[in-house]
Every structure is written in structure tokens, then in C-alpha cells.
Write a structure and sequence with these properties.
Structural class: mainly alpha
Mean pLDDT: 77
Radius of gyration: 26 Å
Shape: globular
Distance between the termini: 44 Å
Number of helices: 22
Strand content: under 5%
Amino acid sequence: MPAASAISSASSLSPIPGDFPDWLSPMAVKEIRQGLRGWLFLALFGALHLGLLLWCFTQLGAENAADADALFWFLFAAGLLGISLRGLNALHSERRDRTLELLQLTRLSAWRILWGKWCAVLAQMFLFLTSMLPYGVLRYYFGSFDAEKNLQAFLFLSATALAFSALTVALSCLRRWIAWCVAGGALWAIAAVFAEGDFTDAPMASYWGYLALALLHIPALLALGATSFGSVEESLTPLKRLLGWLVLLPAVTVYFFEKNEMSFVLLFLTIPLLLLLVGDALTAPSATTPQPLRNFLRWRWFGKMLAWIFAPNRAAGLLWIFITGALFLAGMIALAPLTGPADSDFFKSMLFFVTCCGLTVLIPAGLAYLGQRKWPQHFQTRFWIYFSLYFCIGLGLLITCESNVLKDSTESIVRAVNTLTPIGAFYQSVEGSEKKIPLLPCAIQWLLAFSLLVLPTWREARLLHHLLRAPQRKNLP
């Protein structure tokens, strides 16, 4: 009888299978409960609604409806982006409380941990959106409601907040000061786009393309964050590289078919994500055992071919980079005749643009390989430091030349030195009176990149070849 009563009491305490929290990830449920009870969310939620009440009073006495609409959308954007900033504390709190190791001991992978934390931020954003519905209805009665323009603004701001929230959750895997610096730079770029951009004439296709691009950013950024603290098996390398190809589609397509300010935003929103994916392909740890390659080996010869592009290996990452550049260039060339007559200068500019982008990342990667044996654990840090210095030096020399603060003799020397950086070489090819491609400086940069990368790439390729040939399918789990 005691055993039967214990079983019945245990069954009565078990959760009901139909409960909504049982459908979600346990990490998402924990984060949602803690986030909604946090003082930061409550303070932000209350402050924004006080601002919306102020907007109601200004709307009643406003002579210009455009100013009241601007205030409404400013509060809308401030609420979504402010809630998104809570993602910066996603993993920092776990490391502060020393519970990250306990989470890794559970069945939750690094991806599921970050996915649950992002879902918690998304739930708070959704709560804020639903609380703003009454104010949206009031805008209809105030007579300042344009359905198409409001839908465009809603899509643009919501897509921006979704991508930014994924970025903050991914940045929480890094050091706190680095995360806040990158998030601050992203907020500054978003504010600059809002302030300077005029998207009133952009068609709806551009906004749907922007939403599709933002949705593709979410899994890519979360996978990049999971790589920083997960194992090689949890790096989700095939997912990241497939998403790197997919993000090219909406940006390039909308850019050519609807050339407006929104299409330029789409194209340049793609470049930072591709840069992060390229850096991950060059610096992510390579697989040293057949275990991360077991899914490729199950597909026999076809899987082995795919492994040379999608496997967690730096040689495969380098091949993926070249294929991505070729796809980007092929898409540009294929879609360019659809918008007008073919232009040979356009093809040369696109080819040189892809070349300069490749040099911008390959030379810092080669420099980072020089100290790999002595400091193997700081490889990614060295790469991003060298990349930042290489990019900032070229940009600084370019700004110095264009500011007209140097003498003519000194300026010519600085311009010649600046062509040894990709950004300076590309600028010289598209600006000025001559618009000539500096072939000799580009050849020197490619020779430097090749000499720095040939030996490390050969070692990584031999390692991948050995791992693909060594195990048999029957020995794999």
C-alpha cells in the first residue's frame, strides 16, 4: 500500500502533457520566467507605456500628424531594441553564477541553450507588441493610419529587432566589454539608417526581402555563438555555410530588380554576416577525430565530396570561401543584364570587389597562422585583431588622403602605400580620373596570402583526407 500510494502521488504531481510549457525547451521556459520577473524588463516596460500615454496626449493636440507618427514609431523601435539588449546578459549570467558547466552536463547542446535564451527574448518582445495593439487601434481613430506605410514600418522595425536580438544573444558568449562595443556599433548603424534613410518610395518586395534576410540571420548568428563555447561536434558547420549561401539570394535579387535605398540596405546587411561566417570558416577548430564527420561518411562518396566544403575543417572552409565568392560574382553577372545593357566596367568592378574582400580576410588569417604552434588557443582572437588593424589602417590612410591635409609629394606616397591594402586598392579602381586597377599591389597581396596560407592549408587538407579515409561505416556510432 505505501508503494502504491507513492506511485499515485508521484503521478498526480507529474506535469500534464497538454501544458504549454511542456511544448517548449526547458531552457526557454526557465529564461522566460526569469526574464518576465526581472526588474529591468518591468522598468523598461513601464517606461515605454508611459511614453505611449504621452504620445496619446500629443496626438490629441498635434497639428502635424507626421510628428506624432514619428514619436509612435520611435517608441516602438526603442521598446523592441531595448528588450533585445537583454540578450547581452544571456550567457554572462550563467558564467557569473558558474552554472554554464552544469548546463553543458545536461542533454542540452550549445545550440539549444542559445535557442532557448533567444526564445525568451522573443517572448518578451511579443508581449510588448501585444501590449501596443490598443495604441495601434487609437492611431486608426486619430485619422493618421496608412495601411501600406504602417505595414512597411512594422516589417522593417520588427525584422531589425529580430536580427539584433539574435546578435545580442550570440555576443553574450564573448567578453562583456567586447559584446557591448559590438552591440553599440550595431545600434549606431541602425540609428544612422533610420535617420538618414528614406524608404517611403521602396516597394513591398524590398521589405519582404529584408524580413527574409533578417530571419536567415537568426540561426546563423546563434550557430556562430554556439561555436564559441560548444564542442566541434556542436559547431553546426554545414548549417552556417548553407545559410551563408542563402543570405546572398534576397540581397542580390532585390538589389537588381528594385534599385532603391532599401535594396542597398539589403546588400550591405549581407556583408557583415558573410564576414562573420568567413572568419568562422578560417578560424573555427578543425575536427581531429572521425566523430564530427560521421554524417558525411554515411553518404559514402557523395558525403565525402560534401565534406570538402561543409566539414569542420579550415581547408574545407577556405574552399567554401572561394565557392561563395564565385557564387556572388556569378549572381551579379547573371542579373546585371536584366536591368540594362551589359557594362564591362561593372564586371571589372565586381570582380575586383570580390578579390579585395577575399584579400581582406585571407592575409590576416595567414598572419594568425604564424603563431598557431606557440599560441594555439588564441587563434581566433589574433585573426580578428589582425583583421581590424588591417582594415583600419587602410581606411585611415584613405581618409587621410581624401581630407587634403597632406602635401602633394607626401600624398602620392601615402596613396601608393594604401594600394597595398584591399580597401585602398578598390577605392583607387572606382574613384578618381584614371580608375585603373593597381595590378602590381594586388599581385603582391595575393603572393603574400598564398605564401602564408599554403602550408597550413596543406596540413588541414591532409588531416581531413586522413579522417575521411580512416574510419569505416560499421565502426561509426
